[in-house]
Design brief:
By secondary structure, this protein is of the alpha+beta class. The chain has a domain of about 80 residues. About 25% of the residues lie in helices and about 10% in strands. It has a two-stranded antiparallel ribbon with strand order 1-2. The chain starts with 5 loop residues before the first helix and ends in a 7-residue tail after the last helix. Bound molecules: zinc ion. Zinc ion (ZN) binds next to loops.
Length: about 120
């Protein structure tokens, strides 16, 4: 549910007349800001050659089923709890929460209607 003060609570107080001083200072701050706005990002491992995603039925595969390249980088196995690092990751931005957000505001909902109604 959209909250009218959510952008301010998330630190989004950017006004164009203020210049660029209020922009997030780095990638981490930008990522944190988007998370606080309630727009989820899903990370899905991918083949480094772009053949496939390790998703749904393929989530447990260790090698690409097309080019047979490894999913994870080779690391020194010092600790069995060490997290594996994939060669490539897809950042998936689910559409439904973004559409909900666009229709939650009257100002943006007007722009989401079919153009023939105008
Ligand atoms: Zn592949």
């Amino acid at each position: 549910m959209y909250h009218k003060n959510l952008p301010r609570r998330a630190g989004l107080t950017l006004k164009f007349e203020d210049g660029l001083d209020n922009l997030p200072r780095d990638y981490y701050s930008t990522k944190k800001l988007i998370e606080d706005l309630g727009l989820p990002v899903e990370k899905i491992d991918a083949c480094k050659n772009g053949c496939m995603l390790y998703w749904k039925n393929a989530v447990d595969l260790e090698y690409c089923k097309f080019c047979e390249d490894a999913r994870y980088k080779l690391t020194q196995e010092r600790d069995s709890r060490h997290k594996k690092s994939p060669y490539a990751v897809l950042n998936y931005l689910p559409l439904t929460p973004r559409l909900h957000r666009l229709y939650a505001s009257r100002a943006t909902a007007e722009h989401m209607t079919w153009h023939a109604t105008y």
